[in-house]
Amino acid sequence: MQRYGSRMNRRIVPIMLAAVALSGCGRRGGDTGRAQGYDDVVHALQSFVRHERAEKGIPGLSLALVDSQRVVWAAGFGWADSTAGVRATPETVYRVGSVSKLFTDIAIMRLVERGELDLDAPIQKYLPSFEPRNPFGGTITIRELSAHRAGLTREPPVGSYFDDSSPTLAQTVASLNQTTLLYAPGSHTKYSNAGIAVLGYVLQKTQGASFYPYLKSTLLDSMGLHDSAFQPLPALEQRLAKGYMWSYDGKFFDAPTFQLGMGPCGSMYSTVLDLARFERILFAGGVAPDGPRILQRKTLDEMWTPQFAPKDARTGYGIGFHIGQLAGHRVVGHDGAIYGFATTLTALPDDGLGVVVIASLDGVNATTDRIANAALRLMLARREHRPLPALDTTTALGAADALRLQGRYLKDGRGVDLKEYEGHLYMMPTAGGLRSEVRRLPDDSLVVDGRLAYGPRITPLDDGRLVLGVDTLSRVPTEHPAALVTRPKPKADISPAFHGLIGEYGWPYETLYIFEKDGRLHALIEWFFEYPLKRVSRDVYAFPDWGLYDGQKIVFERDADGQAQAAIAANVTFKRIPLPGDENGVSFRITPVKPVSELRTEALKASPPAEKGDFRKPDLVELRSLDPTIKYDIRYATTNNFMGHPFYTSAHAFMQRPAAEAVARVSRLLRPLGYGLLIHDAYRPWYVTKMFWDGTPVDKHQFVADPSEGSHHNRGCAVDLTLYDLKTGRSVRTTGGYDEMSERSYPLYPGGTNHQRWLRDLLRHAMESQGFTVYEFEWWHFDYKDWQRYPILNITFEQLASQHSAEGSR
Length: 810
Fold this sequence. Notes:
The protein is α+β, with helices and mostly antiparallel strands. Strands 3-2-1-12-11-10-9-8 form an eight-stranded antiparallel beta sheet, with helices on both faces. Strands 14-15-16-17-18-19-20-21 form an eight-stranded antiparallel β-barrel.
């Protein structure tokens, strides 16, 4: 369903609208073929979509182009289900999210045409029991619900976007009686999924039939949309694309498939061909091809008129439809975003041109929007016999340029953070919003272009300032000019008011992160949307006045110890997710799959994988022999590790000499900053790697190495380490503890405190400056660049010590 509010942050750095696209292509016959006159449009669009899909990592996408009463081209790119080898086609079924709203609103307007419903009558005329608390006075109408002007909460307490219990529509609407209007009816645009659910319930109650079969039989079938429904009918499920979720810190997983309690606003299943047929109906003034009249033309005109707006308004919400402008042409349509899918349905009703784009990756509506807008611009140019406009594509900056630009840039206290990771540069507004990538255009200029944004342009200036759109931002100086310190060091202490609140809440498929940033509590919700929170009272914080949750609050519920056990965000209860951690130096623990003694016996009997290659001769040296400030906390020589048993009989940290010397250089780099290195593990005999793998549950295998391939530790080219304070000798605390098998271990984990994330980033930048790369699931694990040039080893620390002793005595 739609997860992008109607308002954006219009302060110095706007919330960046998402931009994404796709690749790979397949098409089938029938009316999915190309129409004469659009071949060059198709060629340009194919290349653009393929590039975008490859760069943005989108699994599958389908699109259709419409010219008046013709589907001039439809195609699939990538996969509907890669594991099953099923390609995306125009016939692939997708969940289309808030595009559903258009059909619910059209069903309402058909009854308005027949005189059965009154757009401006109080909603209680049709739903007498609908009574959300209203401190403002006035009554809610169908028109206000359709145009998102009813003042309702975005989500109902029951049956919300987050609720996987699949309650009935009646239960969902009834739960709104527990809520209070946020704004006076008619006074303020507040996007509300709950409001469209209410309209669906109006249909159900007034027509005496369940909403879902009613919409299918009376509207979708009448339109000839036979591959569409608001329920996952068996024939549709068989062709349903597999949707995927992702997060800023690197999670990628299958999207949940539960049905929404507020189904009328977002539960529709469809294909690009069905939605293209729908656009043909719009262009025909409400008449279905070879079928009945669905709506009167004057009804469509009313739906395409901005509501609660000045007479000459050209943009805003109509009845159901969003209305905008593209190069001076009127645009109507709607986006949809639901777990694992992103949809853009857009049409130029005065020109008879339309596009439908659907992708099988969560939240990438800016990309589907960009593809759709590119298609419309190409089609307009072809119709007007103008040269086709160029479609800009971008490339990653690369590590050198990304490192040179990273830092904090501000104007009047607001701006952006630029951060490098694996040769990419990412931008996040300091005041919240969406994170996206900064990339290079063919003319060598820079632009924001990622899964979640396209634009604005960025121009670095010679004096260290940055032009972002129309604003010039100044780089914030750091206490230390070293390249590895890219932003000022935050305070270690946070407000006592935040104690017990920071953490994760909700579900694995939809996690709410509460964290500290720049002395304020922030929320990251629906994976991508970051909001600074304003403290109202001890347990109540308000969302800002922009974005998805304007006018709404988060209420925390604490236990007797002051630890919040739930966060009620915008009327939806997110329960705290318990996170295992390394508190006070005590390691995270698992229950081994087998007894450690049994694991050891089996591992010692086994042999490392056979290797072929021209390897360097091993030259393992003890790290602390190169720098006496390097300290050890070799957890696997103690019981203080993730399995609770010692694996080494002595505490050593050996590495191949070039890698060891690189660690020593890192130690010298960090010393002026007040930090030393604390080593947890370095070279590891192969048999220990096998013990870890065989003893760890399969769902945690991303945190341990596969012995059939060998570990970089086995080659003496990996090190697990953290920082310690040179003054106190104490290890620092970052977002998660050593060997913690949770998301907090990811190098880009967004939670915790500013200071914790700063320390984690400092260690990474220092290590990367000397030829190491961080492991994507463990902020503490670093691999040296030449690891491929050394063989897998299986000798013990004692054998190594004996070798060194023998060499020293010669």
